[in-house]
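Researcher: Let's continue the batch. This sequence belongs to Glutaredoxin domain-containing protein, and it's 136 residues. Same format as the previous ones, please.
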Amino acid sequence: MAGAFLLVGLLTSGSQFLAGRALLGLFELVAFVAVGIVLSPLAFPRPTTAAEASRLAAVDGRPIIYWRPGCSYCLRLRRKLGRRARTAYWVNIWSDPAGAAAVRAITGGDETVPTVVVGNEQRVNPDPRWVREQLA
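Model: Same format as before. Here are the structure tokens for Glutaredoxin domain-containing protein:
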């Protein structure tokens, strides 16, 4: 998805540059790149696998956050957690089939994210304040 935004941004801004509208082309390019970054995994901490996250969380009790690129609710949670987001274990369900299966098991068959697991507690699209408390 992020790559598509970059490609469209390059094409549209390129056509603006060729038409002599360099400022508009630059604006379009910056806008498309910004949206592409926000929708890409780059906006999130380094993802891990569901198996590794489960193993590590069993040791230190940190939350596991299941997410996917392009999810506005995941992005909102990530933004609200700020720097604390790095201390959770993030599992991208689009790149980890076991993570997607874990979410389906929790949600009754859907891949609704963000889904957060802390110990035996599981919450779908939780209040960011609750997640911050779990990270404290």
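Researcher: Any comment?
Model: The beta strands are 64-67, 89-92, 115-118, 121-124.
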